[in-house]
Specification:
Blueprint (H helix, E strand, L loop, with lengths): L2 H11 L5 H8 L3 H8 L7 H11 L3 H18 L13 H4 L4
Helix pairs in contact: 2-3, 4-5
């Protein structure tokens, strides 16, 4: 789940806030918050700090949620990512120079 969904549920809906009210509280414009809530953008470190100051959830938790979401998105298409596996040359594994 995109972290914007969590913000909408846990911060806005739980507190009876509109997007406009929450944007004012966070000190961002309404479009910035709307983009986040609608999964068009992610949580930046600055936004994480703003969320912590406004709603109490530690910034680190918001950033972990964002990172988990991004990693899950990439893992869904991991088979499409073409990378050549690196193998240490045999003489280096034996400690030879």
């Amino acid at each position: 789940m995109h972290p914007g969904t969590t913000i909408r549920q846990d911060c806005l809906e739980r507190n009876g806030l509109s997007v406009t009210d929450a944007a004012r509280i966070l000190g961002v414009d309404r479009q910035t918050l709307s983009n986040l809530l609608n999964a068009r953008s992610g949580i930046s470190p600055e936004m994480a700090v703003r969320l912590e100051k406004a709603f109490g959830t530690p910034a680190r938790e918001w950033l972990i949620r964002q990172l988990d979401h991004e990693l899950a998105e990439v893992m869904r298409r991991a088979d499409e990512i073409d990378v050549e596996a690196f193998h240490t040359p045999a003489h280096e594994r034996r400690g030879e120079a």
